[in-house]
Amino acid sequence: MHEIQDRILTRLANSKMPLSGDLLAQELGLSRTGVWKHIQSLRKQGVDILAHPGQGYELCSDTLSSGMLAQKLTTRRIGRQHLILEETDSTNRQLMQAAEQGAADGMVIIARKQHAGKGRLGRRWHTVPESLACSVLIRPPLPPEKVPQLSLLTAVALHEALSRFAPGIAIKWPNDLLCRGAKLAGILTEMRAEPGRVHAVVLGFGINLQPPADGWPDEIEQAATDLSSISGRKINRIEVITTVLQTLEEWYDRYLEAGFAPVHAAWWRAHAACGQPVRVFDGRDYIEGIASALDDDGALLLNTPRGERRIIAGDLELL
User: Fold this and answer.
1) Can you give the three-state secondary structure of 167-210, one letter per residue?
2) What is the predicted pLDDT for the residue at 249?
3) Is the pTM above the cut of 0.90?
């Protein structure tokens, strides 16, 4: 987004009343015509800005700008450097590329739309305009074999953050958040490492905020839901992302200080199938059993008629 347009959005978002074109022009060092052209450009991008005759411009849509995020965030590291995109192929791909070019620990990329978002097992993650796609770069002091714990940490942080907006949210192994059996959010973690050393980890997640205007895409196999529908109120995009990033930083700091035990305990408490009968498709067969535990590598332990099974990957179904 153009820097001037970002400043216009931030100024409108922080005002409790319409702002005149004259005032905006004076503050931005533009002519009234220049302000009008930027307003028109924002409208073409889907931003809902009303013009009140004799009063000025008013921001009505749920819009996120860099200035707004910088003002709202209270984190020390995560999100202090960020990039907000209207549309991209994949926030994970963009951020990993930035990581390889030396991007700082804690950098965040957020997009309103993705046309090549990635899900687990090579699947596509569908990001509609009413959703939020976000990727966070961290450079943890961990060996590569510990990185799967960060996916579980991300799930715990998302669960805690989103539960402040709506009840009934649960984690489903290995990386989904559900509400009443429908998918609310998904997580994909990617890593660049060498033996014994991690260079970069990208924590990617997508959150459904509002129901799509045109309905959920036909190719989505699993039932989907959104934060607005389950909370019964309109969800503010900036409020959600700041809550998520702040909660993620709190859990990451806790993890670096106290290790995996607090994450493990919180994940198991929030798991939809804790002690429940499930079946998991591992790519070849269905394995049925009782979800009895989670190990430190993120594998799910099932009590089956043939004894305990350790499941490292697959699709879980609640029975």
Assistant:
1) CCEEEECCCEEEECCEEEEEEEEEEEEECCEEEEEEEEEEEECC
2) 98
3) no
